[in-house]
């Protein structure tokens, strides 16, 4: 199965705006966060 994301659909735009709005006005802070995906256990 292949999933396709069309960011131009109205409900997708509303979803993106609501999530990005959560972070609006928050200070930008850099961290040393990193992660690794172990393909053997996936």
Element order, helices and strands? H
Please give the largest β-sheet.
Answer: none
Intertermini distance: 18 Å
Report the portion of residues in β strands.
under 5%
Mean pLDDT: 84
Total helical elements: 1
Please identify the structural class as seen in this structure: mainly alpha
Shape: flat
Quantity of strands, as a count: 0
Structure, explained:
The protein has one helix spanning 10-22. 0% of the residues are buried. It is 31% helix and 0% strand. By secondary structure, it is mainly α. The two termini are 18 Å apart. The protein is flat.
Question: Which secondary structure elements does this structure contain, and how are they paired or packed?
Answer:
Blueprint: H1 10-22
Observed structural traits:
single chain; about 40 residues; 1 helix; flat
Summarize the structure.
This protein is an all-alpha fold and 42 residues long.
């Amino acid at each position: 199965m292949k999933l396709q994301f069309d960011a131009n659909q109205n409900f997708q735009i509303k979803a993106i705006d609501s999530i990005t709005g959560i972070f609006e006005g928050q200070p930008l802070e850099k961290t040393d966060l990193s992660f690794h995906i172990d393909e053997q256990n996936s």
